[in-house]
Amino acid sequence: MGSLENGVLPLKREPLLKSLSRNERNSSFANRPRSRFARFMVFKKLDYLQWICAVAVFILFMFVFQMLLPLSTLEKASGGFLIQKDDNFEGDFKSLFQEISGLDFGEGVKFVPTRLLLKFQEDNKKIVKNLSFGGSRKPQLAFVFADLLVDPQQVLMVSVAAALRAIGYEIEVYSLEDGPVHAVWKNIGVTVNIVEASGDSKIIIDWLNYDAVLVNSLEAKDAVSGLLQEPFKSLPLIWTVHEKTLATRYKNYVSDGQFQLIDDWKTIFNRATVVVFPNHVLPMYYAAFDAGNYFVIPGSPSEACKLNNSIVVHEESLRVNMNFTARDFVIAITGSQFLYKGLWVEHALVLQALSPLLAEFPVDDRLSQRLKIIILSQDLTGNYSAAIEEIASNLNYPRGTVNYAAIDDDDDVYNVLSIADLVIYGSFLEEQSFPDILVKAMCFEKPIIAPDLSIIKKYIDDKVNGYIFPKENINVLTRIMLQLVSNGKLSSLARNIGPIGKHTAKNMMVMEAVEGYASLIQNVVNLPSEVASPRAVSEIPSNFKTEWQWRFFEAVADSTYVTRTQRVYRFLNSVEHRWKRNVKESFADVSADDTFLYSIWQEEKGVQTAIAKKRREDGEVRDRSEQPRGKWEDVYRSAKRAERSKNALHERDDGELERTGQPLCIYEPYFGQGAWPFLHQGPLYRGLGLSTKGRRSRDDIDAPSRLPLLSIPYYRNALGDFGAFFAIANRIDRIHKNAWIGFSSWRATAKKASLSKAAEVALLDDIQSRRHGDALYFWVRMDRDPRNPMQQDFWTFCDAINAGNCKFAFSEALKNMYGLQGNLTSLPPMPVDGDSWSVMHSWTMPTKSFVEFVMFSRMFVDALDSQVYEEHHQSGFCYLSLSKDKQCYSRVLELLVNVWAYHSARRMVYIDPTTGTLEEQHNFKTRRGKMWIKWFNYKILKAMDEDLAEEADSDHPKRRWLWPSTGEVFWQGMYEKERSQMRLQKQKRKQKSKDRIQRIKHRSQQKALGTYVKPPPDNETVNNSNPVLEAVVKLLR
How far apart are CA 16 and CA 343, in angstroms? Predict the structure, then answer.
């Protein structure tokens, strides 16, 4: 298992760790030091037969030991320590551990998330902290639930959310089903959204609005599935798993051959950035799904502390069902959730320590109290009950006093704990987290007795909320029991400890859970520069770390706690049924289509055969007939003309026909299938896929095929939607034939800021009437952007979303672009005049102006890329972000269109996306004296573009240069070069033709040898006989 610490002993934990691979088991033994016996066997030369005999004896011994354990140990002739004696058995206890030193007591197994801890340490070292710059937006978190029913997980998440909000986080809740906890979330100030999703429908949410997503329970699998697709795959995902139901079904999946279903679950587990468990046992149950991302945050509210009193009320009926009476004094002996071979020894020691209690419960008196001991264990398949009976018999316990109970779920635990008068923790294994069964016993107000393990002493004060005995001295347990039991009943001291223990268990490990989740979120989330950093974990108010937020659930009308295990069981059944149905349908579709596909193949084969036969016949006829011979130049021109007409007469689809003749086409760039639900359908819009794999339909444009630069993941991420602009502008006349062009971000649609039908009509009317002429229309305002809650001006907002370095990056890029020297101020002014600017790449302009804007943008991007490429490409960091960021300078490019439109003297018009109202921004009268028109003049930009094209075409520089890869490279010299090459080719062809004619003229011709007269056919009959003709014919013959 990827998250287990090296050096553990997995073979000693067969029931829980049997899913480990053979290599991992071998590697754990390879790291151990060799024993003396092993060194003797290796380095001493022994006879071959001795080796064989030794191995055979060892295998026989191990076979007998495994078959008879633990009864083989109990049935020693000497009787051993298990036979009841009247004297002190401390010496026998010491001799016991000498005899059983070879047994496994589970002391070597630990769960340590090594990979995650190392990753967190590395990330913390590399994080760039700019203390002089502070963001303006709070970090956003999304909590996803399967339902809003009352259960311990809801209490946990409400407590964590309240603490996170106290240190500066904003939280929004999504749930697949509504429930009574809806009111609880609203009371603490959290927005709740109910989304409907099933196995066939997908959850449509723009997850990029959040900095991290926390998914609770296995039932929220559908929400995790939506995060498997781009552009949401890199979003941090924390998935908490509280149930072991899926782990227990893993064996059934393997035996039934449902490997596709297993792979599906493994994909979900691998997608999570961190999988969180509430204890250290569950990660080992889920060892088969481990991808090195397991983490444990101990602490969860116990359901037993808030259960209805139904179990307590029906205690008498439960005793009857379990063959106990009201007069029985019941002691429950519990232990670790781990199963190890030395567990029976620990139980035997506890039973021997309890044997003096038999004097308090006379067997002959039927009217007095009777002692009943129940040993709880999770060994559901072994012969452990027989071992317990043998141990009790050897310790002289009356028959029926000691009972064994195999527990499978929480209901079994609740039933046993509810009828018990006292609970003893009989495991000496050092646990990493407080045993959950002790928490449940304390919630039932049962006095508990436990060994002095470090994790138990952390929460249990001896003789205050429980009793502690040293595990080295078992006699202390006997003395404690004699103090707590008097005349067959609990003493008053023991009864007083129960309520105190319940108060402790009710709010146990709150601080560990709250601080654990807060620290994990800070380690996992990489906050953008516009987000304000939350306060430190140590600054969480103490009232959020001392108790669970039970008070919010007291006012809930339906506060009945649901059994989460049963709901997860039903959910897994539905997932399996859905998977089987899909497999059957796919198989049925393939088998049903076989006949249909075969008929189509037969028909197509006949058509192809007929076409081939007709082509062969036409060729034979053409060879037998005389063909007019033309010049080679004419044939070449005809072939080229036919090739061009073939491309021009391709079959147009419905989308292209609908867009023909309309003045405007709006392109929607997207990356991945996750953005498909937010794209428009209609003739006004057209999709533009930034990746070939994630294209929605054939009508959508494949950007990487038009601009190979976007096939490189680095530039596809760094440019963002700006890469779509370059792809469209590259030979734009081949793909875009409308007078106006526009772009709209799918994220604007997700925020409900896209154009409505009324706004579309208003925009088209204004364009066709040319009221504003050459203008930039936009419909997403900067002052309404969630990233700008403080209504900042243009350059301040640009600095806020670029780690405070936007103005510096703009200035340096313009200096490099225009070749300015010295410390001249090269930052175009963007005045504050009460109007707003465009954000999120949602605008439209004339196609001619768009080509000019792209010409300016290509040079600007090239200058900007030369500044940040080296550091960003090597380390993933750039000075425009506070942490690792693939979209390094995409946020700078988001605002570039405003600088170009303002200083190139274009009108800027805002159109309300809902009503379609038009409002001009930054009137020309207010711009006088502020625009840098000479720097954004088309002639200057065109001259700079041709200079770069000439350099790329003539010099062919070997340095890394981005500009030639962002679009078409053309200058006047290339046109003249092509014309000169065409003239040279034409002259060569003429010269070849003249040479051929000259060779024909000067070719020597041979004189004819004689005249040939063709004879008439033999069967020809001559009607009119001519004597002269006959004489001539005879002479010729």
Answer: 15
Burial of residue 600 (number of CB atoms within 10 Å: 0-12, 13-18, 19+)? exposed
Going from the C-alpha of 752 to that of each of 146, 668, 842, 917, the distances in angstroms are 26, 15, 13, 17
How far, CA to CA in Å, does 765 sit from each of 769, 776, 848? Answer: 6, 15, 19
SS3 987: helix
Sheet-wide strand order for 843-846: 701-702, 685-689, 664-670, 740-743, 843-846, 775-778, 907-911, 918-921
Instruction: Give the integer Cα–Cα distance in Å for 344 and 70.
Output: 8
* Euclidean distance between CA atoms 729 and 737, whole angstroms: 12
Per the document, the length of the chain is: 1037
Using DSSP's 3-state secondary structure scheme, residue 314 falls into: coil
Beta partners for residue 934, in sequence order: none
590 alpha-carbon distance from chain centroid: 32
Output the six-digit token pair for 745: 């971000």
Return d(Cα 142, Cα 209) in angstroms, integer. Answer: 9
Taking the C-alpha atoms of residue 668 and residue 705, their distance in angstroms, rounded to an integer, is 17
What are the per-10-residue average pLDDT scores of the chain (1037 residues)? Answer: 38 35 39 43 46 57 47 35 41 46 54 79 60 71 92 91 94 92 92 75 83 91 84 92 89 88 91 92 89 90 60 59 78 83 81 86 70 80 76 86 80 82 88 87 90 90 91 89 85 87 88 93 88 91 90 74 78 86 64 57 82 82 62 64 55 66 92 91 91 85 93 91 93 90 94 93 93 93 90 92 90 88 76 92 95 94 91 85 85 94 94 94 87 90 89 80 89 75 87 85 68 64 54 55
Distance between CA atoms of residues 500 and 184, nearest Å: 28
Helix (H, G, I), strand (E, B) or coil at 369: coil
H or E segment and range at residue 350: helix 343-354
DSSP 746-799: HHHHHTT-S--HHHHHHHHHHHHHTSS-SEEEE-SBGGG-TT-TT---HHHHHH
Q: Find where tokens 């940040």 sit.
A: 868
Q: Which 3 state secondary structure label does DSSP give 685?
A: strand
Structure tokens at 861: 């991007």
CB atoms within 10 A of CB 1033: 13
- The residue among 912, 900, 684 whose CA lies nearest residue 778 is 912
